[in-house]
Amino acid sequence: MSFSFVSHLYCPKCNRTYNHEEINQLCTCGSPLLVSYDLEELAKHLKKEDLMARDASLWRYHELLPVVNKENVVSLGEGMTPLLPMSVIGQDMSIPNLYMKDEGIIPTGTFKARGAAVGVSKAKELGVKELAMPTNGNAGAAWALYAARGGIKASIIMPVDAPKITRNETAISGANLNLVDGLISDAGKIVGQAVKEYDLFDASTLKEPYRIEGKKTMGLEIAEQFGWKMPDVILYPTGGGVGIIGIYKALTELKELGWVEGKLPRLVAVQADGCAPIVKAWEEGKKDSEFWQNSTTVAFGINVPKALGDFLVLEALYETEGCAIAIDDKALLLEQEKIAALEGAFVCPEGAATFVAARQLRESGWIKDDEVVVALNTGMGIKYPDTVSVDVPVLQKEETLKRS
Predict the structure, then answer these.
(1) Which residues, listed in sequence order, are joined to residue 9 by a DSSP beta bridge?
(2) What is the pTM of this model?
């Protein structure tokens, strides 16, 4: 059996096709490229039951991933993260069938490891020697570390306000790290110039086709973990939107394979109200978003004023009858505390935003009381130490325990 059933790359806007065995970035029309597989042939060789005996990593789905030669796989054991019932906080928000897909325990501490694993593996297969990318922090750290493991040089540009821990992760990997006094959009401009000047591989969000393929494994896992029965709603914190694009792609591929049936889950793009271009576009029924001026949020990972793949995110929302919702910083920080206190899970601010969204959508009646709902926590809370502020009593040696 083939290690991969990858067929070709295609443009979702103009339908132009490209060879997956060559280095490709954007389509000539400027659109991101997507990966196509020979699903008809794959269905003849692989059954969903065959996965049971495989390793618990995202590479268990290697036929649906773009790496042709197993020797090019660059892995730190990523994937198959827990799908946890959140019954206590679910009861608190009147969603008894609430689950959390917890990406916090993945290598590098966030879901970014998925895109990095597949993206770096394919870059290695294509002979890439050095890549460059802008980042809000976690993606750059993940790509820098996976690039180091794959023997590829990395140049990373991140905003000076990015979480310090992600800066340290990137620097310790040996990557060429630079900071910019601005947003990820400003970092992107610097990367674009560097790519031209030094002939680097541009690993910016959606400027290479393979990060999506890593992120889509979240959708594959959710389907498998539910016994190939799809949930009703999936809420996803949305910045660049690669994850929601990937989950939608995964579930449509599974449906074409005949591994899942029925309606796709309603996808929800969750943004911060200080940076909500997708929400605004969805509310106005548009196919593209506008650049969000002066964006700001404590959920730094979703502080993306304009996503290259915004039209793909919006398509996923429209096609699944989903929605987009903006959450304010105060509400998500309060929810982060509540999740920790009620469920013992220290989620990242972006993950907390999905729980606030679930709470608000349940209150409005958009989520029904008997529906199965999945909230994506995209990383560890400890990667954002500055978002939590607590007053802790300091005892003298002779004092006794103080109880609240």
Answers:
(1) 18, 35
(2) 0.95
